[in-house]
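User: Predict the structure for this protein chain, please.
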Amino acid sequence: MKMSQLLAPTLRDVPAEAEIASHQLLLRAGFMRRVTPGVYNLYPLMWRVVRKVEEIVREEMDRSGALEVRMPILSPAELWQQSGRWQAYGKEMFRLKNRHERDELLGPTHEEVVTAIARDELRSYRQLPMNLYQIQAKFRDEIRPRFGLLRGREFIMKDAYSFHVDANSLEDTYEVMCRTYTRIFERCGLHTRKVESDVGAIGGSAAHEFMVVVETAGGENDLLFCSACDYAANVERAEVRPEAPVSADDQGGFRQVPTPAVHTIEQLVSFFQVPANRIVKTLLYRAQLPGSDGGEAEVRWVAVCIRGDVDVNEVKLQNRLAALELRLASAEEVLERSGAPVGFVGPRGLKVDRFFVDATARDCSDFIVGINVADAHGVGARWGRDLEPGEIVDVRLARAGDACPRCAEGHLSAAKGIEVGNTFKLGTKYSAAMQATFMDADGLEKPFVMGCYGIGVTRTAQAAVEAFHDADGIRWPLAIAPYHLVIVPVNLKDAATVEWADRLYGEAGRLGIEAVLDDREERAGVKFKDADLIGFPFRVTLGKTLSEGLVELKHRTGEVEKVPAEQVLARIREAIVEMKARRDDRTPVGV
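Assistant: Here is the predicted structure, written as structure tokens:
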């Protein structure tokens, strides 16, 4: 490809719409342009990257024994009504009506469609296990699209779905898929960490995410890792080892104490001269639950008591309620439901539908608590004596420094990550609801046990940029770089320079090196800046030293060396051959 013919409109200024480095660089380097919020045109350079990621994904999925299919992005509401997700999925689902006024949707994921395939085509245990996958565009109507392709509305995804006779078979395939994922991301040049995660709208008994750990603003997920064992989890899923009960020997019994204008935890700590773990706070939530029999969504009010030094994990709470939406009550709603302003709410006499007590609060004794009276708090409270305990739950938000839930020695440390893949143990959630069954060895009808496995193809491409860039631009891993090499002749008016440039360009193609010849009538400095911005792994510059038979070979990692012109392509090809050797490694992943 010649640069003069390539659609790669580079920008010098940072677009106002881009908040994080990878989004900024993909726009500045001419890889993509926004059409509407969360929807992008992918220009030639970006499409080459996406196709390379797809190729790696496809090769490894085929190698794992999965079978590629193609399912439509448009699907009928009936399938989702059968699974119960037509109402439960929420506003991220893009619903529409066709000309016959029938409800349809743009698929954000394909559990329902693929379960219908299994229901229609897989009848016997002899056909199992089976793993079907596709690479296709998806659509989710994000409320706030941001970060470019990391949180877009339209995106390209690999999604796979496995069908099994039992949980043991699912476990075997699940482990194969996890190993396959690690290999896929390694081949893309990305080091990932598998962490426990929330099952979210997909559902199931367990889930994991594959995260690229970054130290930039693009790290949209908070992760927690144990310092002593291999425990790792998304903060939404992370647990904490139970602590010793917090109590005090308060001989005064439960009593009301005036606390004028003292309504935050910090103010209570200062006023009473006690640590925050001696305080129990009460939070009110408004939850929207699916309507009964598929009807309109219903509003429920929920109270949560939790220790004052920790926060509520609202994802855990929403999952406990099976709520479509969850939010903190407004100041007006708090007053209506408790009779007291924010900061003075307590567990007694609330107008709520559900009352939860987190395990941290349950283990407290002789604590300070709101009593639904303005400018007053209760002191010396005890569950069972002064307050009726509610439903005991674990909705504590884990944080750095907390004790590891899996080992006795470790504590949790925090990091930021970008999710590029996820895996779910769905069990019979969809097959049972949609009556998708098979005949087992004893002649009995049983629902399929299912697994689900996704990789964000476009997310993976942008995650690589977020992980690998510097002040000058992108530093693509060789395996997914749009091109391996850019050839930069400094003086296009010099016949010898032009001849060598054409020779190297032609020879690169014969050697399997993907090369761009920068034949533009631009200053050398402009060409160098564009080369670094776009992120070609190698740059060969034909300048003054060409008269000595030498060219400059610059690695995008920063190393610069003078190399004989006759040998420079061989040096580059060595790196490509090594990369392809990793691709061709046929070490079994287990099928």
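Residues 57 and 184 are 6 Å apart (CA to CA).
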